[in-house]
Write a structure and sequence with these properties.
The complex is a heterodimer of chains A (348) and B (329). Chain A has 348 residues and is mainly α. Helix content of chain A is 74%, strand content 1%. Classes of the chains: A mainly alpha (348), B alpha/beta (329).
């Protein structure tokens, strides 16, 4: 079949009819995989509960103990996995496009460091012990620190990706040190941060997620809104400007989007590594450099990775569990190594 | 001779170490003299045997410094140390009021023991229970300050109490506590003979560093007294395996507790679930457990498990909780 070229072949936004269909089919498959994992996440746990009980728990609820386990534990962690995974995946794609750095992840702008430090302060100095209490500290910390990094990384000519990354690394190092000092002098903070830093989607009630959802919604909308300009910027700033892209506005909007997404995700689940780093790689490997497709695939693949890792963490050490942040690292590292060795996959 | 900056720094460091050693030695020497002064009894010595061998200690020590796990057991037996290494505030808050007062009067020598502070207190006896490796690092300095009696962490609590009481000259108090303990154990064995014979217990626990959404089946701590000394049937890890308490279980596993007859869980002195355990009690699964709804889930206060006084308070709490069971005997 002859492909119909709609735009210049060298443009990341280039779309062909056959390529488009292939990507669409891939997207449908990714959606089916995600749906299957959502179902599996509710069905599989550290105790054996029959599908019939799961069905009743969801659609004909009673006060049966097993049904409580489904509604109170498995359902919330599945929803949290879906939401947090989506946010981390798109945030990762944004930061990689923005910095043109295939090894960038949301943490590079200080999101994780800001959230961690704020939680340490909340636990260590204010005596807040539960996640309901320090959720907003984490979110606020992530936002404030990212804005600080944005300011530090800005020059008279606008934001420089390299400067922002350097500022993010520096601020992250300073806050990491200050947080460690606080943890070492406060056993309560040390204990709380040990769990929080592992990254987990367990015991996060849905009440915790709903208030963050509007921020995620805005983040996702902004991400897709800047995907076109980011495609142009991938060709270089001068070419992007020639195509009418406003560099400063695009960068600021992209940073706001990734801060809302990554900050919210980190506030809910703690720092979960590799999802934001790996999924955009996989997406790029499947669909090429077009940011719209990368974002669309990341929306589906990232929660799939997170849910698959969480399910794996529930069954490999039965009756105990491994926090999802540790599993994503175990699963993500080898896959990422394989991907970065694939030149085409890693290039931006 | 010319010295390089590195050598000069090395020389300065050596000088500093020597100075500190001299100060410590001087303090230790002064203490020895001072140790002989307070009273004639201090001049009399006896030999006690502990983890660091036979040690000559004053017959009636007047200025005792406790380090590590000896702080609270020594106070529990009526001892009044002049210096303590410091327990967590959460542990101190569980002590009876008089013991809290005694603790507050003592000078803290720091969790990371400040040897100069120890020396400044001019102790005539130092009682230590810390990891062997840590003790090795400061053994010389401590023994130069005062006779130092050391126990490793593997010393069983009853043996520690005996030897601590002997070294610290608080044996009378220990004898009273032991008698009370043995009487309490015998009474509970008799009162709950049927429960001991027929009922499967399980003790749940949660720690301040537990992952969210997890708890453990607690088989270490106070529950060992109920299990080993009274004979209640609590689950235990097979010999040679890690304690059950080392495996965190997801809240989902709460649904499996129906196989037991009685649940015990950590509570404060008033019987309310501890702050750390509260997330378990707050789940709907817990609230719907038949054992919970039928009154077979008992909050038990555990103020400590390494001295007779603390263990007696645990047994009192367990006794009180068991007495509320619908069919207790």
């Amino acid at each position: 079949m002859t492909a119909l070229t709609l735009r210049r072949p060298s443009d990341p936004g280039t779309v062909t009819v056959s390529g488009s269909r292939r990507r669409l089919i891939g997207l449908v498959i990714a959606l089916i995989v995600l749906l299957a994992l959502l179902v599996a996440s509710v069905l599989i746990g550290s105790t054996a509960i029959s599908p019939a009980v799961v069905w009743k728990a969801l659609f004909h609820p009673t006060d049966d103990i097993d049904q409580f386990a489904i509604r109170d534990f498995r359902l919330p962690r599945t929803v949290v996995g879906l939401v947090v995974g989506t946010a981390l995946g798109v945030a990762g794609a944004l930061i990689q496009a923005l910095t043109r750095n295939p090894l960038a992840d949301p943490g590079i702008l200080g999101v994780n460091a800001g959230a961690s430090f704020a939680v340490t302060v909340a636990v260590g100095l204010l005596g807040i012990r539960n996640i309901q209490g320090y959720l907003w500290f984490a979110f606020g910390g992530a936002l404030i620190v990212t804005l600080m990094v944005l300011a530090l990384g800005s020059t008279r000519r606008g934001q420089s990706p390299v400067m922002m990354v350097l500022a993010g690394v520096c601020v992250g190092a300073v806050l990491g040190g200050a947080g460690s000092a606080l943890e070492l002098t406060n056993p309560d903070a040390f204990d709380a941060m040990r769990s929080w830093n592992a990254g987990s989607i367990v015991d996060r009630p849905l009440d915790l997620v709903w208030p963050i959802l509007p921020f995620f919604g805005v983040g996702l909308l902004l991400a897709f809104a800047v995907s076109g300009p980011l495609n142009a910027m991938a060709l270089g700033d001068e070419l992007a400007v020639a195509q009418g892209v406003q560099l400063v506005r695009t960068r600021v909007l992209a940073i706001i989007a990734l801060t809302l997404l990554a900050g919210g995700a980190t506030a809910i689940a703690g720092p979960i590594g590799f999802v934001g780093l790996m999924v955009p790689h996989v997406a790029r490997w499947i669909v090429g450099p077009n940011q719209r497709w990368i974002f669309a695939y990341s929306v589906l693949l990232a929660p799939s990775l997170l849910l698959a890792s969480d399910i794996l963490g529930r069954v490999v050490m039965r009756p105990g569990e491994i926090p999802v942040g540790i599993v994503t690292a175990f699963v993500g590292a080898p896959v990422l190594i394989a991907l970065v060795r694939h030149k085409k996959a890693s290039g931006l | 001779m010319t010295t390089t900056p590195l050598r000069r720094r090395g020389a300065a460091l050596t000088a500093a170490i020597l100075s500190v050693s001299l100060v410590l030695t001087a303090c230790g020497g002064g203490e020895d003299t001072a140790g002989a002064k307070p009273g004639d009894t201090a001049a009399e010595t006896r030999t006690v045997t502990a983890g660091n061998g036979p040690i000559k200690v004053p017959a009636a020590p007047k200025r005792v410094v406790t380090i590590g796990n000896t702080d609270l057991p020594f106070i529990d037996m009526g001892g009044a140390p002049v210096g303590v290494s410091g327990a967590a505030p959460s542990e101190i808050s569980l002590l009876p009021a008089d013991q809290q007062e005694t603790y507050k009067k003592a000078t803290s020598v720091g969790g990371e023991v400040d040897l100069e502070k120890v020396a400044a207190l001019k102790p005539d006896l130092i009682l230590v229970q810390i990891p062997d490796a840590e003790f090795k690092k400061m053994e010389k300095q401590l023994t130069s300050i005062a006779p130092t009696v050391f126990w490793g962490l593997d010393t069983e609590w009853k043996a520690l109490a005996e030897q601590l009481a002997d070294a610290g000259n608080v044996k009378d108090s220990l004898t009273r506590q032991k008698a009370e303990y043995e009487s309490k154990v015998a009474t509970m064995k008799q009162t709950y003979a049927e429960l001991i014979k027929t009922t499967k217990f399980v003790n749940l626990d949660r720690y301040s560093n537990s992952d969210p959404g997890t708890y453990v089946i607690g088989d270490i701590g106070c529950v060992e007294i109920a299990q080993d000394d009274i004979g209640f049937n609590f689950p235990k890890a097979p010999a040679g395996k890690d304690p059950l308490a080392y495996t965190s279980l997801p809240f989902e596993q709460l649904t499996k507790l129906s196989q037991y007859g009685v649940i015990t869980y950590p509570a404060d002195a008033e019987g309310k679930p501890t702050e750390v355990f509260a997330p378990v009690v707050d789940t709907n699964t817990w609230k719907a457990l038949p054992l919970v709804t039928s009154g077979h889930a008992l909050g038990v206060f555990c103020p400590g498990n390494n001295s007779y006084g603390a263990v007696l308070r645990y047994l009192d709490s367990l006794d009180k909780a068991l007495a509320t069971l619908p069919a207790k005997k």
